[in-house]
């Protein structure tokens, strides 16, 4: 692991903290990536300013200009491939959303979660390496987990076997769209298991299709 990778890993391991991001931006500044460094610093500053403040608006104007010129280049630094999709928004300098669309090869999920400080994970695939999230400490990073898959029960059983989830704020079962509404397609046992595991952090659609 080189110095850049080590600094990025610190950012990923501590997604709630600004200090690792600012240390990384200092390294970028010293190594010829001044625009990326400025972007990270400005987004970190903006996140701590009142929404309607002139200071925030000024920084957002610069941020938007940097994104317009360099955003695609920075986005393309993320791993690319089949079976997953990165979110389109930078938060405090980095992309924080990852959607898994297909069953990934072994160790692929780890590489993705070490490429950016992911705090929101959306699962669209039939199976995910949940045990990897637990064994490698990735549960410590996640704030929002969304299951939007036809295999809800199998995901639920796997999720309820791992933990704890110290930073998790919301666990969402997206459900199935029927006549402009989303309904829960999950067994009663699995739903009860989730409620016991996540209590107030759980978000379920209406109980229209409880099996």
Strand order of the largest sheet: 1-4-5-6-7-11
| Number of alpha- plus pi-helical segments | 8
Distance between the termini: 48 Å
Main sheet: strands, sense, barrel: 6 strands, mixed
Order of helices and strands: HHHHEEEEHEHEHEEEEHEE
Gyration radius, rounded: 19 Å
- The helix-and-strand class reads alpha/beta
Helix content range of the residues, please? 40-55%
Q: What number of domains?
A: 2
* Overall pLDDT: 88
Shape: globular
- Number of beta-strand segments: 12
Kindly estimate the percentage of residues that lie in beta strands according to DSSP. 15-25%
**What kind of oligomer do you see?**
single chain
Low-pLDDT sequence parts: none
Task: Describe the protein in words.
It is a single chain. The chain has helices at 3-13, 19-30, 34-47, 54-75, 108-113, 130-135, 152-159, 188-198; strands at 84-86, 90-91, 94-95, 97-100, 120-123, 144-147, 170-173, 176-178, 181-183, 185-186, 202-203, 209-210. It has 211 residues and is of the alpha/beta class. It folds into two domains: 3-75, no CATH class; 84-210, no CATH class. The strands form four sheets. Strands 1-4-5-6-7-11 form a six-stranded mixed beta sheet. Helix 2 (19-30) packs antiparallel against helix 3 (34-47). The longest helix has 22 residues, at 54-75.
